[in-house]
Request: fold
Amino acid sequence: MHVNELLSLKGKVILVTGGAGLYGRCIVEGLAEADGTVITASRDLEAGKKLAGKFRAAGLDVHAMQVDQADHDSVMKLKKQIKEEFGVLHVFVNNAVSRPMKGYHAPLEDFAASMRVNATGMMDILREMTDLIAAGGGGSIVNISSMMGMYGPDLSNYEGTGMGDMPPDYFFHRGGMINLTRFMARMMADKKIRVNCISPGGLFNNQPKQFVENYNKKVPVGRMANNDDIKGLAVLLASDASAYINGENILMDGGMHA
Reply:
């Protein structure tokens, strides 16, 4: 098969949760540019509609739906809506994340709230969307973790920035997602579903100048990630070009941890 066909997502229905977020917007755009039919889903339906409208105006096939990952009924409603409107789901990009903890000393209630969305809720939507993909004959799941799920915090990045404390829940859940990827790759093999993970490094988002300087000097490519960096990797793992890649976590950090 020609490499352009391998990388094409034409005819593929793809769900991206948290599609209006920083990395989510990049992922949605890249998958749609590869000719996929992309659904962005999050709690904020209006933000999703605005994003989808922007991409449709550029000729991309993007749709918005609503889901509250912490609410099982909402997850089931999304599953039903996808089935009714598109008939099938081929790819699920498991990207949504909540950040209720603001630091190590935050109330334990914040950790519990994080668990509800990022652990229980994430498993709920992953399982339901996996069932939908299996019903259509198989496909691909792409989990979005973080390099912070692989390594402890580099506190020197924050020296002189006043950016504050590090939230433990994020490290906890991102690390768990990486091993869950391996579990799901084994469990879903008989359903012809591949499960892989991307662990991005920091995305430039106008952080304080000192933080950017601290960070960039540790990265061999000399910069933080930009909006295009995750696109190709997301398309690769969603497409047939990665048909023999399964159960992997790909670190996307510009060589910071080489």
Observations:
- The first strand starts at residue 13 and ends at 17.
